[in-house]
Amino acid sequence: MEILPKTLGTRPRLAVEVRVEGVVAARAEDAAALLTAVARGDVPEGAVMPGLKAGNIVNKVAVTGAVRRALDAVAGSGRERLRDVTVVVPDSAVRVLFVDFDQLPSKAAEALPVVRFRLKKLLPFDADDAMVSYQVMSNEKGAVKLLAVAMPRAVLEEYEAVVLAAGYLPGAVLPSTLAAMAGLEEVESPMLIVNAGTGAVTTAIVQGGALLLHRSFDMNAGASAPLAVTTVVPLVDRESTAQEWAQQEALGPGGWDRFEAEAAMQTSVVETAAGREFGARAAAREVAQAVSIAAAYFEDSLQRSPDQVLVAGTMGAESLAALMEESGVEGLRVREMVDPGMMEVGAVTASVPRGWLAGVRGALRN
């Protein structure tokens, strides 16, 4: 099973995202990804616990039921159910990595051992059974840049299993924030993106289709040790980033290297709540702090302040704006990544807020 399809034209017309808060599915008829149908499936609290170890799907029956209900509502005819579905998974279940080489063989069969060797040092988990997809973002003389996503095989199989049990075929898997970013139009003005929901927040900066920053913070990684992982990526051209990540391969064991050490300097750790009553407040502080850190990196690297924040995820723009105001983060206009023009009239109801749709909409856009 590939983590991503090899060509843009093979992207499925159905997509489903599994999150802690529930499941959302969408359908689009063509590569423009105008959403023609959306649906949501609720799950009990604790049914999904994203992470890098097996056990992400705690309540398989409940999650399978939610996936089935959501996809059945958007699939259309029975024939559609035979088609592949793009599965969007939580950022906490993957690692997004940037690696560069002086040179890399052009043939995948020859490049994979080289990439595999380098990734052994970058992954923070036992990578014997990991799956990885990579995309050549730019290839100039003396400089080859790759964007890679690594995911433990056991974790990947959990998300695939609930889709299969729901009666559909998982044709591709995308991490939430990168999926959402795929729905953006190419503009020269840099954009700050926030994907926030229960227990996790990811911030990213993109300019002209080029990823500059990807920082995920998992507040569910452990009550006493929340985990932040930052990937800083230099600019690449839009044409190169339009290519699909092409291969997956099992990796050898490895640990951290200097790249993660440098990234760690840019991370912060939220104070552990002393009790349940302080948990939501601590999480809110962490989300606000994540936005502040990303905004500071934006200003330092681009010599300008961000003029707006694009919001994906279940927190929603209105809630994030209120949170930032309460936390003293000012001067940023907050808006949803998915606007009404990206959906057919009547496709979305109050039961499926626009913030929930950024991942599936991006997954459907070629």
Topology:
Layout (H helix, E strand, L loop, with lengths): L13 E5 L3 E7 L6 E8 L17 H16 L8 E6 L5 E7 L6 H12 L10 E11 L2 E10 H13 L3 E7 H6 L9 E7 L2 E8 L2 E9 L8 E6 L5 H4 L16 H7 L14 H24 L5 E5 L4 H10 L6 E4 L21 H7 L2
Parallel strand pairs: 1-4, 4-8, 9-13, 13-14
Antiparallel strand pairs: 1-2, 2-3, 5-7, 6-7, 9-10, 10-11, 11-12
Helix pairs in contact: 1-3
Walk me through this protein's architecture.
The chain has nine helices and 14 strands. About 14% of the residues have low confidence. It has a six-stranded mixed β-sheet. Strand 9 and strand 10 form a beta hairpin. The chain is of the alpha/beta class and 366 residues long. The protein is globular and about 50 Å long.
Please give a handful of descriptors for the protein shown.
six-stranded mixed beta sheet; 366 residues; Nucleotidyltransferase, domain 5; five-stranded mixed beta sheet; 14 strands; alpha/beta; 27% strand; globular
Compose a concise summary of this entry.
27% of the residues lie in helices and 27% in strands.
Q: Which CATH-level-2 architecture?
A: 2-Layer Sandwich
Question: Count of helices?
Answer: 9
Distance between the termini: 20 Å
Mean pLDDT: 80
Sheet with the most strands: spatial strand order: 12-11-10-9-13-14
What is the element string, with H for helices and E for strands? EEEHEEHEEHEHEEEEHHHEHEH
The biggest beta sheet, please? 6 strands, mixed
Poorly predicted regions are 4-9, 234-277
Bin the strand percentage: 25-35%
